Amino acid sequence: MAEVEEQGRKPSEEFTDESEEEDSEEEPKLKYERLSNGVTEILQKDAASCMTVHDKFLALGTHFGKVFLLDIQGNVTQKFEISSVKINQISLDESGEHVGICSEDGKVQVFGLYTREGFHENFDCPIKVVAVHPQFTRSNYKQFVTGGNKLLLYERNWLNRWKTSVLHEGEGSITNIQWRANLIAWSNNVGVKIYDIGTKQRITNVLRDNVSLRPDMYPCSLCWKDNATLIVGWGKSIKICVVKERNPTEMRDLPSRYVEIVSAFETEFFISGLAPLADQLVTLYFVKENSEHMDEEFRARPRLDIIQTLPESCEEISSDALTVRNFQDNECRDYRLEHSEGESLFYIISPKDIVVAKERDQDDHIDWLLEKKKYEEALMAAEISFKNIKRHDVQKIGMAYINHLVEKGDYDSAARKCQKVLGKNMDLWENEVYRFKTIGQLKAISQYLPRGDLRLRPAIYEMILHEFLKTDYEGFATLIREWPGELYNNMAIVQAVSDHLKRDPTNRTLLTTLAELYTYDQRYDKALEIYLKLRHKDVYQLIHKHNLFASIEDKIVLLMDFDKEKAVDMLLDNEDKISTDRVVEELADRPELLHVYLHKLFKRDHHKGQKYHERQIGLYAEYDRPNLLPFLRDSTHCPLEKALEVCQQRNFVEETVFLLSRMGNCRRALQMIMEELEDVDKAIEFAKEQDDAELWEDLISYSIDKPPFITGLLNNIGTHVDPILLIHRIKEGMEIPNLRDSLVKILQDYNLQILLREGCKKILVADSLSLLQKMHRTQMRGVRVDEENICESCHATILPSDMAKPFNVVVFHCRHMFHKECLPSSGTIPGVQFCNICSAKRRGPGGGILEMKK
């Protein structure tokens, strides 16, 4: 709960809200300051009795009958001596050009501030309130009302005279009047009434709830929220009334408008004033509390609350206790709450003090956040509304945040904020770097230093690199990788790393970093040597990126020892830069590596390395026998005699069999399969591939005394050799495994062959018949002959110009046409003629299908 306290300060000082509970985390909604300057002097000699607020100025009435016009800062601009007793009410029109004043001695004055022409009257009773028409400036709205024992309406007629009408009387003194548009609301001892000046009808009567309270001690507070919403506060009760149009069908003798109470609720304290704030309500409370030592009540500080109204209750948004001067001597009737509709300004008026409350702006919000050390939120708020803040600077808030984080010891967060706060200010950056060096936290700020278009001096970066080099090799290496080489003097850092390597020559991290520095400095040969020495994965990327193929011609073995696959792929992809002959020369002493290279070369192109195929035979035999046979099959440049010699020396039977068959010695190859491999299936497969009757004969002869071989033959040769030849040569009494199954299979294979032949025959006959029928239909079709057709022999029109003369035409199935006399004589077959053109082209003779005679 915020307070406005004096505590010996000058009256002109602006007072800041202070929380009754210092550790409160809830931000106040309003800020307060005393209205000072001329007001201070006035209230020292006099006491405030009423005040009216206009957007441009203030009008203050006092107990000694004076009215002061003040500017917003409280400086006196005009002074009026109205009476010698208390000013009860001041009313202004919307333009601020006309004022209505009433006093306790019955004086009423309504005049123009710039003309002084108007109404001046003395009544025989005190006039408590006066209200001028909001549009009083306009000639047809020269109206005002006064309230004493009765409510009087004054209107100026066309003769420039004032006409008086009694709007209400008989219910005690009128204590408050509020005029909005065409509606006049007033309160008396009984309740609140609303009068429609346009229809001249009284709309409603809202009775007061607590009739035990004296109306003069606890006056009614009235406030128009808009042209149709009236807020009524009386005692501890608040009602919100809405003026609505009545349905024409329900009017009868009733007013055209009616009032609906949309919200009504009780408050904890007595109400001294009301004012709207958007959809919320500002309430000024007069507070009485019980003393701990005495039974009687005493007057406490007034409270200014912001509440959210509900239909039958309210929700407190904020609550501030105000320490106004002499609050112990004030009653509920001594306080007033006025507000400026143009701005969210609220004036708390008491006899000896005037306090101005206003909504806190973004600067105030940031002040509160900084006071609570919520720097992150303060910085965010300043960044979001940097165009609207006046007293704060985003960068200064950020620096305060950084200082706070450093004081807490959260150096990493402080360094991270530097990137956001310091921005492009290089001087601030350098200051922060030196501060972090002083506290021994250069590592924390290193990763956030500028490294783009905006950069610090190279000495700053070198200082940080030297710091890392002393204590953290890994961190040093990370910075070298992340920072562009242009940020610092590369040679100086290379020298520093070299000095450290003298003490620790095998340190892998330092060696890798040195290679990267050499790369930045374009000394690629030195970088390559280090990478190869370390077997670093980036060596191939370095070679490709900087085209270092000339530098690796003597380092091919090292590259392949590191990663054969990557090295071979790189060499083969760049044959134009490192020739195959050069690679073979370098790998001559490492045949296992040479084999890997030549094998991949052969896979890519069987012909590129043809001159090394003879050499590859031995390499495959030594290091990669599984790929020897595929190599022999695919190579067309391999010397077969050399290959056969190598395979026979190493007793590679399968490879020898392939070479013998390729060289034409199939019988020897079959013999090796049967004798050395003893694999009848492979032998049968080999015989099928060669499709040689003599081989089948040799295979049968070799197998005839071996029952397992006979079984294999019986199962597999049925489609290649007549099984009867094999069966006749089997000795009587020889026991053959699974003979019955083999014979059944032979019969099944034979039946299958018969079925296949019959099926093929049926298909052939059906296709032949179909084609014959198609040809017959085609040849039976008629052929159109007209004047456009020509004789294929004499090239004259086939039909004569005179169709009356007799003529003979021959048309062949091939659609060629001749005059009969242009055809040569019949051939060897009497009566059969053939198309000369088709016969010459060997397309087959075409028989004459039609002879036209006339």
Please name the defining characteristics of this protein.
single chain; about 850 residues; alpha+beta; Serine Threonine Protein Phosphatase 5, Tetratricopeptide repeat; 4-stranded antiparallel sheet; elongated
Query: Helical content, roughly?
Result: 25-40%
Main beta sheet: strand number and arrangement?
A: 6 strands, mixed
- Which architecture of the domain at 360-450 would the CATH scheme give at its second level? Alpha Horseshoe
- Give the end-to-end Cα distance, rounded to a whole number of Å: 132 Å
Mean pLDDT comes to 82
**The top level CATH class name of the domain at 360-450:** Mainly Alpha
Any idea what the shape is? elongated
Function: Plays a role in vesicle-mediated protein trafficking to lysosomal compartments including the endocytic membrane transport pathways.
Main location: cytoplasm
Membrane topology: Peripheral membrane protein
Keywords: Autophagy, Cytoplasm, Cytoplasmic vesicle, Endosome, Golgi apparatus, Lysosome, Membrane, Metal-binding, Protein transport, Transport, Zinc, Zinc-finger
Describe this structure in words.
This protein has a domain at 360-450: Serine Threonine Protein Phosphatase 5, Tetratricopeptide repeat (Alpha Horseshoe). The protein is 37% helix and 24% strand. It is built from 28 helices and 35 strands. The longest helix is centred in the C-terminal third of the chain and has 42 residues, at 739-780. The chain is elongated, with a radius of gyration of 59 Å. The relative contact order is 0.03. Belongs to the VPS41 family. Residues 791-839 form the RING-type domain. CHCR repeats lie at residues 568-712.
